[in-house]
């Protein structure tokens, strides 16, 4: 098989959703019906850059970035600023470098600065992001379920 990481076509969006669901379920975070609907909507947003990684016909990874916005995402788009909302790899392919390939493809969106949020206890994700040039901004928050999250930023 041949691994291909590329911008997703409309026909790839359900495969990207499947990768997202499988990764969340493997981490013990099975998404609700409402959350699935919100992610499906984000994947279809015309401003989103969606990346799909396929090994032959098998979807193995996905990512989504969108224009960065003022006011913590509620305001107007900021030129040259992107926000990485999702990077997920099918659990059967964890540790094979797919996340780095997805991030590299997302960085081809042409942004000078990108940010993302990740759980503070997600060491695997933090290693991936730091290897790709992301650094902590010092901003932290807490999700509704009590999990701590931190913002990371990449310049260039």
From TrEMBL:
Limits of the N-acetyltransferase domain: 3-155
PROSITE patterns: GNAT
One Pfam family named in its UniProt record: Acetyltransf_1
Keyword line: Acyltransferase, Transferase
Keyword Oxidoreductase attributed: no
PANTHER family per UniProt: AMINOALKYLPHOSPHONATE N-ACETYLTRANSFERASE-RELATED-RELATED
Protein name: N-acetyltransferase domain-containing protein
Organism expressing this protein natively: Dactylosporangium darangshiense
Lineage, uppermost ranks: Bacteria, Bacillati, Actinomycetota, Actinomycetes, Micromonosporales
């Amino acid at each position: 098989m041949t691994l291909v990481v590329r911008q997703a076509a409309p026909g790839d969006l359900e495969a990207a959703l499947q990768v997202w669901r499988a990764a969340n379920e493997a981490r013990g975070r099975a998404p609700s019906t409402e959350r699935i609907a919100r992610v499906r909507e984000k994947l279809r947003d015309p401003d989103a850059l969606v990346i799909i990684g396929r090994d032959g016909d098998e979807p193995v990874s996905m990512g989504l970035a969108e224009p960065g916005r003022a006011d913590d995402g509620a305001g107007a788009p900021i030129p040259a600023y992107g926000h990485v909302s999702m990077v997920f790899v099918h659990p059967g392919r964890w540790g094979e470098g797919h996340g780095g390939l997805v991030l590299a493809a997302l960085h081809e969106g042409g942004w000078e600065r990108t940010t993302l949020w990740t759980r503070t206890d997600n060491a695997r994700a933090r290693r991936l992001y730091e290897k790709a040039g992301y650094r902590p901004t010092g901003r932290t928050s807490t999700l509704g379920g009590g999990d701590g999250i931190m913002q990371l930023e990449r310049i260039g």
